[in-house]
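ok so i was messing around last nite and threw this chain in just to see what happens. nothing serious, just curious
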Amino acid sequence: MTNDDLTELIRDAVLSGRSDEYVLALAADVAGDGETREQVVIEALESPPGRRSDREETLALNRSLIRWYRRAADLDQPWAMWRGGGRWGLSGSNGSLPQEHALTESEAVSSEEAIGWLHRAADHGIRPAAMSAAEASPDDPRAIDWLRLAYGDGLPTEDIDRNRLLDAAFMLASCLSESGDPEAGQWFRKSVECAPWENQIEFRTSSWEEAVAGYALWAHSNQNPSLCAAWCWRLVENAANLGPVA
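result:
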């Protein structure tokens, strides 16, 4: 039996109401190095079905997927908290579903629950989760540590591209500036001593221009008028290079 066959078997077993012990036994035959059995089950449920699902099957699938994500989160599995938090953190599990596929409030994952998963995954040291947690909760006292983790060595990854890295530096600089920490200056420099950038997510947009303005204001408030003037001039130069906006 191929892994694809086992994936379909796991999916059918979950949707037909077989016991968790039975499903986990199937998953154990597929799990690779570093994979938990819950991860195998969730990936089976997330894989495209071999046939078109009707409304009742779609509802059953949504309920099952949420139940298995919650099970993995309750077992403190960071990958599940990161993926589930990223999947539902903006608007909850009903946010992008048509009304006929929505679950009841008690069944659905709320945005608050999903963001809580992101927080926990970030506290486990999951780098992209740390970035998402800081974006979702910039006022959380842990945001500074999350942003340091997200920035890491400053090299982009599959999950955190160049723009998000530079935004992490800018967010960290802003947080440190608010608390009066002089380290803010070096993080502002990381976010502006580069080609212009922009990072846009559903509830927030930031850019090189915003970071430069923040750095100039920081320099002014720290009695460094020449540094403030230099970066204000850079903003003017950049605007001139871009030309008029239609």
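not much to say yet. The mean pLDDT is 91.
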